[in-house]
Amino acid sequence: MNTDNDSKDEPARTELLIGRIAALLESARERVAPELASAGIPYTVIEIRPTLEPDGNGWSGNEVEVETNALTLRWRPTFPIETLANWFEEAEAVSSELASLFPNTLSLAGHFPSGRLGFASLYSGEDDENSMLATALIEPTENYILRLRSAAEPDMELARSIGAEILAVLSDGRGIARQSIAIAGLEPERDLLECNGTRLRELSALERGDISATRPRLGSTSRLGPFSNFILATHVLEVDTETEQPNTTSLLPTPRILVAFQLHGFDPAGPGSVTTKVLPEWWFNGLFSRPIAVKQISANPRSLSQTQFEDVCRTADLLKNYQLDHPDGHQAVALQRFAMGCNRPDAIEGVLDFVIALEALLLPYDAETRHGDLAYRFRVHGAHFLAENISEHREIFKTLNKLYSMRSRIVHGDKYPGREEATIAANEGRRLAASGLLKAVHFKFPTAAELTRMVLREDVDARMEAP
């Protein structure tokens, strides 16, 4: 067996198979187009879409006419899939070759989960493996036709890209779950920032119009979901995660990139929703949208460079070690409470959250001192762990004392702080918590024993250096 020749021939065979799949998709379009015409269904329609654009003094709304494939509209008639009943002979010929190349991926329910059950009645003959594959090929075929500008015009480049997607899914059974969050409060140095499957891109005028609408418009094709109009989002965060189970993507955790931004001092805001879709789009047709906790208004928009974005992404990657949605330990509690404090509209609540985050960071369980003075240990541990050098100890000690005292005043009702005092305290609490948690996430959360050794060592060092 000449494996060298086989490996040399593999790219050619792959290109040939992609071409056969593309021809199969195009054959379906050629069957559907005349059926639409005979039924009086237009290939394209004009859709009225809202837009939102900056005008120098804020935002201005408008409406534009967009030519759209008639089959993509929400009120569209049922996709005329029945016209493909005689198309299965072609599809089975292609699927036979797929079966020979990918013998371990014939369990189509896993790779094309919405294919076979929906269209099993459309083909005749025995329920063999080729028929199963042929039936599953309807999903990418329908996706091809729906993504065309018009069913009357072919797009072989698109057909070939879908063919390549099919081979990729059959090869490794993996797709991409893309989580999207519309946000404001970030001012990137360019329209698109990318890093390791995460991107921050500017929203188009049409996307902003969809997001700002008070309710989904008839025929809206926005992929970001029906957000509230309270926030004028400017950008969208897109986080890609590999998945082998597209029907479970609704269970993905909230993207950690938001907490990472907050740890680095940014204040992302937004309508408060994360939407997940699966790529390739034909693999699992559907969007999952759920609410998330995020600030409603960004009071401090900050510029963002590519280098800063990469730093944030590195932190987000490290945060995968912590269950932020459902904390399973004091470390995750510290991070979750920090994020909650960043999202609070009220400074009093922010103070409580940031102090709890600092307590979870600086007061890990210690069997030997569990009945000791927590407030004192809180200040001393923080002065040593949070300081960059010994000269900062005293100032951090004082700040932590103020924070802990204010937390007690809020909880126990003695000299309840005013708005200005609480705002100053919340800002100080956030600054110290962000600094300590970044250090802990990138290096290590300190144990009780390590904090004790740190205090004793630095005290000895200070005495040794004293004149």
Task: Please describe what this structure looks like.
This protein is of the alpha+beta class and 467 residues long. It has 3 domains: 3-41 and 77-172, no CATH class; 175-320, no CATH class; 330-465, no CATH class. The chain has 16 helices and 10 strands. It has helices at 3-38, 88-101, 108-111, 116-119, 129-136, 138-147, 156-172, 205-212, 257-263, 306-318, 330-343, 347-362, 374-385, 393-412, 419-442, 448-465; strands spanning 44-54, 59-69, 175-183, 186-188, 192-195, 198-202, 235-243, 273-279, 287-291, 302-304. It has a 6-stranded antiparallel β-sheet with strand order 5-6-7-3-8-9, with helices on one face. It has a two-stranded antiparallel ribbon with strand order 1-2. The chain is elongated, with a radius of gyration of 29 Å. The relative contact order is 0.08. The model is unreliable at 106-125, 214-230 and 460-467 (pLDDT under 50).
